[in-house]
Amino acid sequence: MAFVSDAAAPEINVTTNNNTSYKDAVGNRLFADKEEIVTVTATITDTVSGIREIGYAQSSEMASFERKTIQVGNAGYQVGHDLGDGWIISAIDNNLITRVTKTFSYKNDDNDIILSFDATDRSGNKKGNVQSEMFTVDKTDPVINIVFREDDDTDVYYSANRIADITVHERNFDATLIKDAIKNTFGSVPSYSFTEVSNEEYTAVVDFDEGDYTFSMSGTDLGNHAAIVNFSGGNEREFFVDKTKPSITDNFPEFAYTVTEDSFNKDKQVTITVAEHNFDPELIKLRVLRKDAGTDHNPNGLVDVTGEYLSRANWATSGDVHTITFSMSYDAVYKIEMTPEDLAGNTSDYRTTVVFEIDKTVPVVSAKNGSYVSATDTEFLEAYPYSRRDGSAPTVDFSDLNIDHIKYSLTVWVPDYLNSEAMPVVKPLTVYLKEDTAKSGIIKGSKFTIPNFTNDGVYALKLIAVDVAGNESVLNTNTYARMVDQDVLAYILDSNVNNKTGLYSFQYEDGTPISMRPDNFDDLKIFVLAKQDTNVDIVLRDTNADKIYANAQVTTDDSIYGFTVYNFLLTSDFFKDNYNGDTDIDLHLTVKNDEDRIDLGRMHIDNVAPTCVLPEEFSSWHWYFGEDSRTITLTNISELLDDSTCTVYDNGKAITPVYSKEDGTLTFKLDKGWHNVGVVLAGNAYNVKERVNMHVGYFWLWILISCGLFFIGVGTGALIVRNKKVQKYEDD
After folding, report:
1. Which of 272, 277, 369, 541 is deepest in the core (most CB within 10 A)?
2. CB-based contact 101:150 (threshold 8 Å)
3. pLDDT tens by residue, 268-295
4. How many CB atoms lie within 10 A of CB 26?
């Protein structure tokens, strides 16, 4: 009986028949060719005792199966026969099956595929747990689904963060192979990461904050299959996220000015600056509203004229800053408003100016004494003689849509018949209207009426009408002469107390003449209004009533019926030429009209230095006894002095004397000692008298001199006595 001794187990060889360069997530080979069928061939060999049993199993994600077995007999087989389930006999030794093979084919997606084999020969030797390499088959493209959460997709602008949910369906997933193309030209690019939901599903959330985005996504799996990308939600490829409302800067507050009741007398420029990335000029919702000038400053009746202004103005853009400038130059009532919004729907607060007015039209004179006058008639000179004694007080009316007030200056020269010489003297008097309690020179309204127009005199009126916006009319100069009780009126022009001009250049306010040198006078302009065909002239009268004709320059105007206007100019040269000697005189400046006259003022011309009487002891050297101080008094001073200029010099040092205007004296003190005294007397006309080198001394000097004389006398006496003795001795 024959037998076989076999201690070796069958050989099992497993071969993967395909090649690939891809690896799955755990490093196993990944077969990704969509047309390729992946095959694995298992070969079991036992050439000694032959194969009796074959065991095999498969582990994978999709197609695992438990261990299967094939029982192999020892007779009746041929090469090529199928033992079952694809196991093919590939070698026989007599009646023993020595080699079998099976090829496993894979054309569907599966991961982590492992084939396990075992075999037992007919001698009972067993070879177990021989495995193929673990591999993966992947023929399916990954799918990337991008879904934007619900938002308003009517346009590409969003006022809140935009959120996209990304889902990737892929068993052989690698996050690094998912590529996004997110560009943000205005901000940062959002970051995100994938979360594994299952071994074939991965999700991520992309939160798009502010920015201008273009967005796309692509990717592959580990087998380099290109992903299928599905978008949903609208505006996926390009969109804009803007959560910031427009930032507005304007000059609207400049249109509120309570001082002029929100009215302006010049062009007003509107400047609006919008800082906004997603800017649309239409969305600024700028409106210019207007109604007629002079109407109430309220919203009623305003008409939208925006197009008229924006058609001439353009937005200037620098980056995200947009500026528009235009001017309001047309006389009208306006309101400007806006509610800015951006393309994303972000809205800024409502903004508006007050209702304001552009008023560049100046008020004009419209009527005089109730009768129409031309706007260019701005100078009036009118006489009210006896025939108009009962006429109404003169009035002046101004015209303007927004007249506010009238600035006035009313100076009245009314003759004063109560002066000491019983001659009328015209003195200028500033007059205020009764309603002008503050004496501001301003009254409300558009009409001015001369007050108290009852006395003879000249009423010099200056008017400027001012509207609410501050426009001022041309200066209206109106002179009214009321001449009922006399035939001539005269006054010195440009008389001003503060400026010391005109009448007040040579006379104080109380009528006292200013003591002046002849070269200190100003030119004097003298206005005279008299009936025609009368003899009018300017004269100076001294205290003896002697007339000195001034030969003043004169121009005349006979345009007023029945009257002549004289404009005299008494130049300063007249006084310098006629009073350059030793003059000290009082004169009355007078207008002569035939046998009548009107005194305009009193002047004192002083071209003589002041004099005084010195104390008798000052006429030569003088010595005072004692050591007390002495008060020295200069008396009989010839004229008023300017005590601020008078000075006493004691041994060259200035000391301030005491001047008594009432007594006509100047006093000062001298202490003990030897003094060289000088005195400067300055008159009010600035004539100066100096007295110098007046020498005085005190008692102690007399003592020294007396002592010297005493000792000299004693010595002389002694010498005489001695000589007499010597003579007597010689005689004896």
Report:
1. 272
2. no
3. 999 999 999 999 999 999 999 999 999 9
4. 10
